[in-house]
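quick q for whoever's on today - can somebody do inverse folding on this one?? i tried earlier but teh output was garbage lol. tokens:
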């Protein structure tokens, strides 16, 4: 008997690709249903993570919380791209330490919409408290 390939109407949960189902019986007109519950758990593909879950919503929540804004150098996780960029510049860029001593102010405000630059980290912290009523502790994310 010849195998027939049909495209499943469901989307593959992880990659969004159409799934192909092979039928043994060419007279079979009904579509076999995809049953994602029978598939194995979804595993995070980020090296060393080890997170697994049963549905795509939990996986997306995990990825966006734990990996979307993660420093490639030290693996620290940030709430947004602006905070991650500041971290990378201030912590891992050797040129930044020279700029701080030669051309102050260099410490940008943690809030992306604010264009204020400060001379020191302490000055920036005080700026956040006085002008934005934000404590720096509220800008961090716990490690997953």
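ok took a stab at it. sequence:
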């Amino acid at each position: 008997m010849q195998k027939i390939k049909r495209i499943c109407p469901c989307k593959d949960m992880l990659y969004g690709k159409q799934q192909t189902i092979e039928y043994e019986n060419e007279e079979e007109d009904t579509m076999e249903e995809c049953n994602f519950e029978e598939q194995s758990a979804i595993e995070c593909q980020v090296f060393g993570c080890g997170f697994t879950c049963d549905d795509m919503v939990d996986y997306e929540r995990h990825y966006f919380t734990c990996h979307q804004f993660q420093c490639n150098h030290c693996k620290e996780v940030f709430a947004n791209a602006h905070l991650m960029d500041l971290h990378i510049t201030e912590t891992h860029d050797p040129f930044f330490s020279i700029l701080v001593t030669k051309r102050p102010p260099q410490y940008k405000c943690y809030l992306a919409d604010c264009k204020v630059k400060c001379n020191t980290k302490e000055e920036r912290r005080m700026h956040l408290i006085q002008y934005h009523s934000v404590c720096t502790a509220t800008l961090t994310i716990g490690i997953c």
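fwiw Helices lie at 56-66, 81-92, 94-102, 121-132. also Residues 4-28+41-66 form one domain. so keep that in mind when u check it
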